Structure formats: structure tokens, C-alpha cells
């Protein structure tokens, strides 16, 4: 049977110069109208499009279809039960405010055309678009992750403000391991040897994986994703990607796509990339630090700074809100049992509720900057967190501090990670704290909190069914 003949289209740049397509269609990411979308897809010879949306865990869910069907006003839907299952695919028992919808009715996928981009690792020309979730009559669904974050951003907008964020995402490269019973190990680099720990900011450590990193940059460029910097972290084959600051929803979208991009680039080179918070015993965990500031929509001025350059009352109230509420929303930043293995002393992660100026041992660090760039870094979230929910929780806590004029403690100038641990030590404790304060329902919605808490309790019950190597080693013959 003869092979299918591919139609070779001219480059986008050449098509723009010849006037065949408008310059607005030449951008790698995002369009404004459905006509622009059709032109954008046609100019690239796109055959298929993936309509994706994050579930509660941040896993891409959705549907794939021919691009011709996508632009023909096709109605797309997903079952509401998608937001009621655990990371392992189980459906928890109904408890507390966690209830199933008896009909398991459809939720509609509403494509956000500003997120349209190619899928550069696919062999056939393929595009992707991130979708919002709405009800059958177009109403917003409050418990879906993108909507939870949008609602928090809208609360800032109602005050004439716009939050600005810049995430930093850490992850490990690990050798392929098909058996989950065996520990993970760092992969071999171009030297033929597995890289060791203690390589923080090592250029040689990055160079071990030059070809993989080139693919990450290449894939990112094709999708219109901007990487600010890339460094090697402390752990063996642990890397960190820093993103440029911007709108919270846009940056959450970028983290959502970056995770997928990095995994695909790693698989191309026969290794895994993992965003698990604590993948290897004895090594540092992986964080998703979040830099946050707030600006006036009309003027662009930093709300955290007074006209004379000093720190504003809103700045201190924001920190006060972080201190008061982040421990209660920690389950949105540390969502799994494994997450709390990272939040332990001597593992390069804060285990406190302190803040300080340029102090990396505190949970909330204020980096050195001028007045225009004054910001607060939240160092508690793990890279395993759903970026939409981690940003929503962090920004929501700061906003509650401003709304209630909460005062922070005195800044910490010493090492803050010595002594007692000021955070929840496990998943169930963190879930209970999320449900404990009615103020959190103001910014996150009671419906989301009930749903999320039920799913997390279900995940804990699934975890409790597994017997760990520690139990077999120390209990089998000793008790």
C-alpha cells in the first residue's frame, strides 16, 4: 500500500512576507478569534488538535479530534466524575461535604484560544489548546482548578489590582525504572557516569544533559513558552527552570504545559523526568517556589511599595495573611503523602511559618529588590502541586491578610529551620485544616474545598493499603 503523501507547506515566515497569512497568525502561541484559529491551523498544516484541561491533580485530561471538526463549532464535554477521582483513578467513599452527582452529568470544554500552540514532539502535525470548564448553560464551575484560580484573580481585580507571579519549578531526571518497588537512581549523563549530588549551580552538571536541555528549549520555543533561566540544583540530576513573571492564569498554564514538555523531552532520551516532591531518599525534595507581587491595574504601580519606596501596609498585611492561612491551605501546595517527606528538617525546605528579608530558611522570603519589584516568595509549595491550585491558595491567603488587615510577626534574621516544625506533618492533618476556617471558602469556594478534601482522604486510604519496605525491614521479624 503506498504511503500517505504529505503536503509540504511554506514556512510561516515566508507566508507572512508573501501576504498569504496576516502577521497575527505567525505567533507560536495564541489567537483571538475562531477565524484566526482556523487560519493558524491551516497555515501549519495541523491535522489533529488536543483539547486539554487540568484535573484536580493537574493531569491533562480532554479529547483529541481532527482540526476540521475543532473549527466547526463542535460541542465538547467531559463527565463531572472526572473531578471526583484520586491520582490512582479510584473513587472515594462519600464523606463530609464530598458527594457524587447522581447523574454524572456532562461539563463542557470551552477552548481558550489564547493558549493555542503546536505539540512539537508529535510526529504528525498536532496542536493543543487549554480549555475552561463550564456547565450545560455556560455557567462557571467553581471547583475546577483553572476556575478556582480565576476566581481569586477576579477578587484582586475587583479592588483595581492585578497579582503578578513568577514560579520556579524543580524536578529530577531519573533512570528509567519500570518496577515501582525499586528505588529511583540518577541517569547517566554524556560522560557515561551517573551525576552525583552537591552540584548546585554547576554548569558541568547541566552540560551532562546538553541534548535533553536543547530539546526542552526547542519544544518550549515551538509552544511560545518562555524560560527565564535554568540551573542545576543540589540533588543528583535535579534541575530548576525559572519562568518570567506575569499573569497568574497564564503562568499556571505555562507550568501545566512545561511539566508535560519536560517529561516528553526526557522520554525522547530514554529517561524519566519527575515532579514528585521527594523521589529519592536522603536527597533534597523538589519545590515550586512562587514569587508574588500586586500592581494597580490602571497605573502599574507596585501595591507593596509606597511612593517614597518604603514597604506599604498592604505588603505587611499580605505577609500576615500568608502566615495565618498558608498552613491551612498547605494541602493545596503539598497534595500527597509523599509531599510531607520533603517538608522535613535538613532537606533544604522550610518547615516553619516565618518570614524574613533574603532569608532562604524562612517559608516566606522577601528577596532583595528595588521598590518597583518588591515581592514575597512562597517557598513551601512542592513541584508535585497543581500549579493552578498552589497559586490560588498562595494568592488567596495573601488577599485575606489584606482584607482583614492581619499583622505579620517580626522578620526572622537567623536560621528559621531549627526547633519545632510549624506546619502540618501529614496529609490528613492538612486536609482538616483546609476545612477548618470559613474564611477560606470566601476565596476558594466551599464546593471546591469539600470536593478536594474528599479526594485527598480517598488518596490517603489508598496509600494505607500499601505495605512499605520500611515495615517489612523493621517489623517483619522484630515485633
From TrEMBL:
The keyword Transcription regulation does not apply. GO terms for molecular function: ATP binding; glutamine synthetase activity. Residues 145-479 form the GS catalytic domain. Gene3D superfamilies: Glutamine synthetase, N-terminal domain (3.10.20.70), Glutamine synthetase/guanido kinase, catalytic domain (3.30.590.10). Residues 47-138 form the GS beta-grasp domain. GO terms for biological process: glutamine biosynthetic process; polyamine catabolic process. Its cofactor is Mg(2+). Transmembrane segments: none annotated. Keywords: ATP-binding, Ligase, Magnesium, Nitrogen fixation, Nucleotide-binding. Belongs to the glutamine synthetase family. Catalyzes the ATP-dependent biosynthesis of glutamine from glutamate and ammonia. This is Glutamine synthetase. It comes from Shinella kummerowiae.
Amino acid at each position: 500500500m503506498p504511503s500517505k503523501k504529505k503536503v509540504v507547506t511554506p514556512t510561516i515566515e515566508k507566508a507572512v512576507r508573501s501576504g498569504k497569512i496576516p502577521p497575527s497568525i505567525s505567533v507560536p502561541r495564541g489567537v483571538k478569534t475562531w477565524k484566526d484559529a482556523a487560519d493558524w491551523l491551516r497555515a501549519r498544516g495541523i491535522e489533529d488538535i488536543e483539547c486539554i484541561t487540568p484535573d484536580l491533580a493537574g493531569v491533562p485530561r480532554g479529547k483529541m479530534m481532527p482540526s476540521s471538526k475543532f473549527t466547526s463549532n463542535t460541542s465538547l464535554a467531559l463527565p463531572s466524575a472526572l473531578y471526583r477521582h484520586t491520582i490512582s483513578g479510584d473513587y472515594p467513599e462519600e464523606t463530609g461535604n464530598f458527594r457524587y452527582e447522581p447523574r454524572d452529568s456532562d461539563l463542557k470544554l470551552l477552548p481558550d484560544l489564547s493558549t493555542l500552540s503546536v505539540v512539537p514532539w508529535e510526529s504528525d502535525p498536532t496542536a493543543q489548546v487549554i480549555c475552561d470548564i463550564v456547565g450545560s448553560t455556560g455557567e462557571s464551575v467553581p471547583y475546577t482548578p483553572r476556575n478556582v484560580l480565576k476566581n481569586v484573580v477576579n477578587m484582586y481585580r475587583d479592588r483595581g489590582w492585578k497579582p503578578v507571579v513568577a514560579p520556579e519549578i524543580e524536578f529530577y531526571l531519573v533512570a528509567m525504572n519500570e518496577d515501582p518497588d525499586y528505588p529511583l537512581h540518577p541517569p547517566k549523563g554524556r560522560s557515561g557516569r551517573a551525576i552525583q549530588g552537591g552540584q548546585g549551580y554547576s554548569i558541568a552538571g547541566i552540560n551532562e544533559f546538553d541534548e535533553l536541555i536543547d530539546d526542552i528549549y526547542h519544544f518550549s520555543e515551538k509552544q511560545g513558552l518562555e524560560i527565564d533561566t535554568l540551573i542545576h540544583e543540589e540533588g543528583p540530576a535535579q534541575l530548576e527552570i525559572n519562568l518570567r513573571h506575569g499573569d497568574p492564569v497564564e503562568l499556571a498554564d505555562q507550568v501545566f504545559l512545561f511539566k508535560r514538555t519536560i517529561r516528553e523531552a526526557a522520554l525522547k532520551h530514554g529517561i524519566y523526568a519527575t515532579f514528585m516532591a521527594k523521589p529519592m531518599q536522603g536527597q533534597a525534595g523538589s519545590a515550586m517556589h512562587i514569587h508574588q507581587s500586586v500592581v494597580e491595574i490602571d497605573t502599574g504601580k507596585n501595591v507593596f511599595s509606597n511612593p517614597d519606596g518604603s514597604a506599604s501596609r498592604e505588603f505587611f498585611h499580605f505577609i500576615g495573611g500568608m502566615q495565618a492561612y498558608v498552613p491551612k491551605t498547605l494541602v493545596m501546595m503539598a497534595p500527597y503523602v509523599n509531599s510531607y517527606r520533603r517538608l522535613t528538617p535538613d532537606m533544604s525546605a522550610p518547615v516553619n511559618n516565618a518570614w524574613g528579608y533574603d532569608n532562604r530558611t524562612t517559608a516566606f522570603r522577601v528577596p532583595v529588590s528595588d521598590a518597583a519589584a518588591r515581592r514575597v516568595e512562597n517557598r513551601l509549595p512542592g513541584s508535585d502541586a497543581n500549579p493552578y491550585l498552589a497559586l490560588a491558595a498562595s494568592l488567596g491567603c495573601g488577599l485575606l491578610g489584606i482584607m482583614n488587615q492581619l499583622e505579620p510577626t517580626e522578620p526572622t534574621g537567623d536560621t528559621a529551620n531549627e526547633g519545632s516544625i510549624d506546619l502540618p506533618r501529614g496529609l490528613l492533618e492538612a486536609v482538616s485544616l483546609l476545612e477548618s476556617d470559613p474564611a477560606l471558602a470566601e476565596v476558594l469556594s466551599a464546593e471546591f474545598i469539600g470536593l478536594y478534601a474528599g479526594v485527598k482522604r480517598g488518596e490517603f486510604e489508598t496509600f494505607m493499603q500499601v505495605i512499605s519496605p520500611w515495615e517489612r525491614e523493621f517489623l517483619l521479624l522484630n515485633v
